[in-house]
Structure formats: C-alpha cells, structure tokens
Specification:
Length: about 250
C-alpha cells in the first residue's frame, strides 16, 4: 500500500532551482532515510510533499484538506525549539488535535496515544516538567513524542536526531523501526550515514538537484556515490549486530 507518492516533483525557491524530476513512492513498513549533502533539498522535498512550499508535479498528500493530511502524515520540522512554557504532557497532547472535533475534549484514546508516545521517547518522568526548561535534547525528544502521538500512517521527520546524545539517537531510530513493523512508515532526513545504514530499510540520495539513487543502503552508499556526492571514502562491513558504516577521509 502506498502512503506517499511523488511524480516529477520540482521546486524553485527565490528563482533558484532546488531539485527537479523527483518521483518516488513510500510503501507501508518502510524506514526511508533521506540523505544528501547540505543544500541538496532534503527539507524542501519533504515540505513539497506536504504542500508546504509551491511545487510542480504531483504529491498524493499536497492537495488534501489540512485535517485529512494531518491524519495521514505527521510532520516534524527541523526547528526543535519550543515556544510556549507548557508542560511536556500538554505539548505531546497537541499531536492529537487532528483527531479531535471543534471544541472536543481529549478522549481516553487520545490519552493512551500520549502515554504511549511519552513511553516510546523515555519521557514518562518528565511529563509534568515545563517543556521550555528542558535541555535541547530533551526538547527534541518531546517534539518527536508529539509527532508520534499524532498516530498517523506516515511520519516525515526532518533531522529528528540532531542534537541528541548517542543513546537517544539510537533509541529514536529504533522507535522508527518499531513504527514500521506496525505497517506504518517513516521518512527521515539524516546526516549520520552510520545510523542510516543500520536503521533504514531504504535510502534516497538527493544531490545536484536530482534524485541520484534510491534503494537498499548497500546499493546507495557505493564508493562511487560517496566520492561523487559526498567527497568521502568509507568502510562498510556486516557484523552480527548489523551493518557498520564509518566514513574515513575527505577525497576532494
């Protein structure tokens, strides 16, 4: 089942082409890592898929009414700053808004979704803390929890592990794998290629205004692609604990 379909998408911002000719489909049960050098258009592609920036081509989500779109796809933007001094539980409960009617109170199923999201991100003990008083990494985890509480078939997360310590980077990516195991899907932009290889079922490489490669991590992170698009070499090995990818040196 397709949860997202893009056909021949193109975006130009302030007269500058960002990317063009991007077509892809995201099916159920996938963790799709969106990778590429800085400025490749990863954020813009996700925003275009959601209809948040003008684009040509077609997206299966972009033309939906806002409430319907919010019930099909949860969006976690790159900015991890929390503006309001609400407690963590209230912040995470905001993820349930698309499922509530006008003036409708939070229901038992909404509270269950919030509790589940808090548990997934290890925030149970922080639920009554003021969100703006948390550390940067804790705030990021709270925003991931809000996204998870939305309980949509598809999650689009823009650099959600940036600023997290190694343990929480791993646990967040494992959480995305758990979501995919339930038949949902996650599209996550990520710069840590080691974590991408280990936790993503598929990688999409954007570079030079185009989709360069789309497939299994081992098929995307080839020596040629690493040299041409990232300017690096790397060591890639399978271990009993899973694949390990380590960048080695800059080649340019």
């Amino acid at each position: 089942m397709s949860l997202l379909s893009l056909h021949d998408m193109a975006v130009s911002l302030r007269g500058r082409p960002v990317f063009s000719g991007v077509s892809l489909t995201v099916g159920a049960g996938e963790v799709v890592g969106l990778i590429g050098p800085n400025g490749a258009g990863k954020t813009t592609l996700m925003r275009a898929a959601l209809g948040l920036v003008p684009a040509s081509g077609r997206s299966s989500l972009a033309d939906l009414p806002a409430r319907d779109r919010a019930r099909r796809a949860a969006w976690m933007p790159q900015s991890h700053e929390i503006a309001w001094p609400v407690d963590v539980e209230t912040l995470v409960t905001l993820g349930r808004i698309p499922h509530l009617g006008a003036g409708q109170s939070v229901r038992p199923e909404d509270r269950a979704a919030v509790d589940r999201a808090l548990s997934q991100m290890g925030l149970q003990d922080l639920r009554h803390r003021t969100a703006t008083r948390l550390s940067g990494g804790e705030q990021t985890r709270a925003l991931v929890a809000r996204t998870l509480a939305q309980d949509t078939p598809l999650v689009l997360a823009d650099e959600p592990i940036a600023g997290l310590d190694p343990a929480h980077q791993i646990s967040t990516m494992q959480c995305f794998q758990d979501i995919a195991a339930q038949g949902k899907s996650v599209v996550v932009s990520i710069h840590d290629l080691g974590l991408a290889v280990r936790h993503c079922t598929r990688l999409i490489l954007l570079a030079g205004g185009r989709l360069v490669a789309d497939g299994a991590p081992v098929d995307v992170l080839t020596p040629d692609n690493l040299r041409a698009e990232f300017g690096i070499s790397a060591h890639f090995v399978d271990t009993p604990q899973g694949p390990v990818f380590q960048p080695l040196e800059v080649l340019r």
